[in-house]
Specification:
single chain; 638 residues; mainly alpha; 24 helices
């Protein structure tokens, strides 16, 4: 091969560094990452059962939307494989038990079969559930996406630049989606960004406000002057109004499911515990059945019912991103002075000490019962052990969430004040006043707002260091924005700075329009929160007060019934030769008060976790910090 031909071949195979990085990222992303993906791929190799064409297309759409690295055949194969390896051995063991051979009793076998069918359905519907969760998580950023695109396009009517701006400032799933759209246009999968964004909105066909907003923003590209700005404003108004309506409908539809969940999932099961001692006597049921029913099966049913309700939650607003705040403690830690301390050892210590006290009391009570030929109840030890478990988990969650919540509340307040500050500054600049003088004049109108420090630092940079408007905010070492690590404030100020390069009039119009957008966003958030308040307050009352109170009453009644049954059995035993079969059974309760209280305590702790997830998801959507806070307070207060 000649040098010329070899050089031509090298040029032909030449690719950019960015493309190599993208190929590597895509190759890594295409590998199965989760246990479900790995299991379905292995099951597909073993069984390779393919669904019919209609089902295959439907499952494939769900897989693509949820970004799962698997196939329809893999999902069906995994479902059938799991069913076979759980049901067949269980049935064989149950048959052996009927033949009086070592096996699995019918009662326990029925429980295993129920759990097997339950998890089989879960495995089969997992992609659909993941898709709905993805829609909820990504959809919470949709309002912010429209806001960023509209802000950018007010200054520069370029859709690709607007999507790039949104991709740079959005986090999470939707930010990734926008970056992928940009790459697809870059490599020629789409001829234009307009074609790409229209194709993307087809995934969100159920969210008509989002589709209409995007269509209006695309239409604005063909308009000039005020008409273009009017269309952009209308796009923002449509997405905000859509969020209001969807939240209102969700709140209306939520009241009955909340009542059903709490009545059938929490209150009635707890009240039903009163009858368990009597049922245990007549049906010869042990505490194991109660444990499996109340601490395994019932929480699973409650969890999946609540998950199904939450999947209908509409997309509302994105949570505040505090990842760039330097004061945020590392994951699993909290700030103590100038150090960061792991929270789990403290939670473990608190819970461990209280549980240890309960165990020592139980051992002491057992020894006393043996010494005096009495019976072991263990009421106080069981209560103390349950308290230890609850306080251990509760203290851990409160420690890791309290400081993050404080930082987020401060950031939220600053972001809410930012709209007012922009409005005042925009008004000052609109009169043709230089930006430096306008900032100084507007400071007097925002004296009581915390956001004033942002503009005060910027003004100081301009006066004392001779910085430009852009440098005053974004200088690497002294920029005012460094002290306000909010992605929203940073992205908006970047837009304002770019607008100022076109003149003070353009900057003024940008500030006024953005402040109007932010006020509309804030008003909509407040309205949605107000609509959901009644339902949330009802759930919090049930979780913090009603359920623990009813549980206490029920446990007390059940223990009294157990004592009465025990005394009846003891009196009957004193009859000597007189045989009273019916009454003699009363002394044969196969569960102690210690076991009963402990099982109920575990059930209450599990329902606290599940109801905390429910409350937080209604209030904030997929919000890890909020869920940890609500869980901690539920466990400590309840």
């Amino acid at each position: 091969m000649t040098i010329k031909k070899r050089r031509e071949e090298e040029i032909k195979n030449l690719v950019s560094r960015e493309y190599k990085l993208y190929q590597e990222e895509e190759r890594f992303a295409s590998l199965p990452q989760t246990l479900y993906e790995k299991a379905s791929r292995s099951a597909g190799r073993m069984l390779n059962i393919q669904p019919d064409k209609k089902s295959r297309d439907k499952i494939q759409k769900t897989i693509d939307f949820a970004h799962l690295k698997t196939t329809p055949g893999g999902i069906i194969s995994l479902t059938i494989l799991f069913l076979l390896i759980t049901i067949i051995p269980t049935l064989i063991l149950m048959v052996l038990s009927l033949l009086k051979l070592p096996g699995l009793p019918l009662g326990y076998g029925a429980v295993v079969l129920f759990l097997s069918v339950f998890f089989t359905i879960y495995l089969h519907t997992y992609p659909a559930r993941l898709k709905r969760r993805y829609v909820s998580e990504a959809g919470s950023e949709i309002v912010t996406l429209v806001l960023y695109i509209a802000m950018y396009m007010r200054n520069v009517p370029n859709l690709e630049g607007a999507v790039k701006f949104a991709a740079e400032n959005l986090g999470g799933i939707l930010g990734y989606e926008m970056k992928k759209l940009l790459w697809d246009v870059e490599v020629g999968n789409y001829l234009s960004m307009q074609e790409a964004i229209i194709d993307y909105t087809e995934r969100w066909s159920n969210n008509r406000p989002f589709v209409e907003s995007v269509e209006l923003m695309i239409t604005s590209l063909k308009q000039v002057g005020d008409r273009r700005l009017v269309l952009l404003d209308e796009a923002v108004n449509i997405i905000l109004q859509g969020s209001r309506e969807r939240a209102r409908h969700f709140n209306q539809d939520l009241k009955l499911p909340v009542m059903v969940v709490h009545a059938l999932g929490v209150i009635l099961p707890i009240m039903g515990l009163v009858l368990f001692p009597i049922v245990a006597v007549f049906l010869n049921v042990s505490g194991t059945i109660l444990f499996v029913g109340y601490d395994i099966i019932l929480p699973l049913i409650l969890y999946f019912v609540i998950s199904s309700i939450l999947e209908t939650r509409p997309t509302t607003f994105s949570k505040i991103d505090i990842s760039e705040n330097p004061d945020v403690p590392p994951e699993g830690k909290f700030a103590y002075g100038k150090k960061y301390v792991k929270a789990w050892p403290i939670g473990l210590f608190i819970g461990g000490v209280i549980i240890a006290i309960g165990i020592l009391l139980a051992i002491n009570e057992i020894n006393v019962a043996i010494a005096f030929n009495g019976s072991f109840e263990g009421i106080y030890p069981a209560l103390i052990i349950g308290l230890g478990i609850s306080l251990g988990f509760g203290s851990y969650y409160i420690l890791i969430s309290k400081q993050r919540l404080g930082i987020r509340a401060k950031t939220r307040q600053i972001e809410n004040e930012f709209a007012e500050a922009l409005f005042q500054l925009g008004n000052q600049i609109s009169g043709g006043t230089p930006i430096e003088v306008s900032i100084e004049h507007s400071m007097a109108r925002i004296q009581n707002l915390k956001i004033k420090e942002l503009f005060s630092r910027a003004l100081k940079n301009m006066k004392m260091m001779g910085f430009t408007f852009s440098q005053a905010f974004f200088d690497k070492d002294y920029g005012a924005i460094r002290y306000y690590p909010s992605k929203m404030i940073k992205s908006i100020m970047r837009t304002v700075v770019e607008s100022s390069k076109k003149g003070v009039t353009t900057a003024s119009l940008a500030m006024l329009s953005i402040s109007r957008y932010l006020k509309g966003l804030h008003d909509t958030q407040e309205e949605v929160q107000e609509q959901l308040n009644d339902t949330l307050n009802s759930l919090k009352f049930q979780s913090y007060f009603l359920s623990p109170m009813i549980s206490g009453i029920v446990v007390t009644l059940a223990v009294i019934i157990m004592r009465i049954l025990f005394q009846i059995g003891k009196k009957v035993a004193d009859f000597g030769q007189v045989n009273v079969p019916f009454l003699a059974q009363f002394g044969q309760v196969k569960i102690t008060a210690f076991e009963f209280i402990l099982i109920v305590s575990i059930y209450l702790i599990e329902t606290a976790f599940i109801l905390a997830m429910f409350i937080n998801a209604i209030e904030s959507g997929e919000d890890k910090i909020g869920r940890q806070d609500v869980t901690g307070r539920s466990l400590v207060v309840g």
